[in-house]
Amino acid sequence: MSRAIAVLRPEPGNRATAAAIEGRGRRAIRLPLFEVRPLPWTAPDPRDFDALLLTSANAVRHAGPALAALAPLPVHAVGRATAEAARRAGLQVVAVGDDGAATLVADAEKAGVRRALHLAGRERTLEAGGIIAAIVTVYASEPLPVPPEAVARLAGSVALLQSTRAAHRLAELVPPPRRSGIALAAVSARAAAAAGPGWQRVEIAADPSAETLIEAAIALAD
């Protein structure tokens, strides 16, 4: 029997990823480690910028009504899910990247962007500088309590690591002596490293898309 695949990302992404796994005939363990919550913010004047950078669909989901003020700005987004969320919110997506935030910034600069606004979470990988003229924090990911019995369900599974923060949290929850029966499918080498040593096996996805990560997890589960 194939191993279960544990989805650790927050809702509503957890539900969507688990459904995609189950749609492939696999068993998913739904164990969100964080809860995403909106933070109060004020939209800056869009005339001060020439583009909007979005690296997570959460920035769109939790931005609220103030996001409408930024509709004049062309959007550069990481991943199809982020791009789709932006389009549903009435934003104009001009570029979609699948190689992470740093590549998105480099590609935006090549495209002529000089003063970008980045809507982000409180915990993020990008900081102001270069073409990123300003960063506005619109949401935060707060750790959820995870009881020992929920952690025990991970034994014998393949855990999806879709961020370095999730990897750090998993390492906190699963001590080294209990890692040998759990395999990891990581979105990046950085996420894999953040999980620390002792796991049964670690596979790094060829690209950061959800589809590729699920494929990597299925390969480990078989």
Task: Write a short abstract of this structure.
The chain has 222 residues and is an alpha/beta fold. The protein contains 8 helices and 11 strands.
Summarize the helices and strands and which ones pair or pack.
Elements: E1 5-7, H1 13-23, E2 28-30, E3 34-38, E4 51-54, H2 57-61, E5 74-78, H3 80-88, E6 92-97, H4 101-110, E7 116-121, E8 132-143, H5 148-152, E9 158-161, H6 164-173, E10 183-186, H7 189-194, E11 201-204, H8 210-221
Parallel strand pairs: 1-2, 1-9, 4-5, 4-7, 5-6, 7-8, 9-10, 10-11
Antiparallel strand pairs: 3-8
3D structure, described in words:
By secondary structure, this protein is of the alpha/beta class. Helices cover 31% and strands 25% of the residues. Strands 3-8-7-4-5-6 form a six-stranded mixed β-sheet, sandwiched between helices. Strands 2-1-9-10-11 form a five-stranded parallel β-sheet. α2 links the parallel β4 and β5 (74-78). The longest helix is centred in the C-terminal third of the chain and has 12 residues, at 210-221. The N and C termini lie close together (8 Å). The mean pLDDT is 95.
